[in-house]
């Protein structure tokens, strides 16, 4: 899940140039360089929904077999 929020290292090292844009850097660039705050907000909500779906799917697939650990 941490790969979704990759922002700081590529941005600090390359400033988003040379094809190192991730979804997070594109989102920040859309909001603050192009002043498209609504589009950046929609991108952030899409990222949140995708992350939530992936987490729910992961929790269902990798569910522990022994849920009662106190017995």
Number of strands: 0
Could you report the average pLDDT, rounded to the nearest whole number? Answer: 85
Query: Which class do the helix and strand fractions yield?
Result: mainly alpha
Largest pleated sheet: none
The value of Rg in angstroms is 17 Å
Strand content: under 5%
Order of helices and strands: HHH
Low-confidence stretches: none
Number of helices: 3
Q: How far from one another are the termini?
A: 32 Å
Total of domains: 1
Measured as a percent range, the helix fraction is 55-70%
Shape: elongated
Describe this structure in words.
The protein is mainly α and 71 residues long. It has one domain. Helix content is 59%, strand content 0%. The protein is built from three helices and no strands. It is elongated and about 55 Å long. 1% of the residues are buried. The mean pLDDT is 85.
Quick gist of this model?
With 71 residues, the protein is mainly α.
Secondary-structure map:
Blueprint: H1 8-14, H2 23-32, H3 37-61
Helix pairs in contact: 2-3
Key terms:
71 residues, elongated
């Amino acid at each position: 899940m941490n790969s979704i929020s990759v922002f700081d290292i590529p941005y600090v090292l390359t400033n988003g140039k040379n094809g190192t844009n991730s979804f997070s850097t594109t989102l920040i660039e859309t909001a603050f360089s192009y002043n498209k705050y609504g589009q950046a907000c929609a991108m952030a909500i899409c990222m949140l929904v995708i992350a939530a779906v992936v987490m729910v799917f992961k929790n269902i697939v990798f569910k522990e077999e022994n849920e009662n650990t106190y017995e």
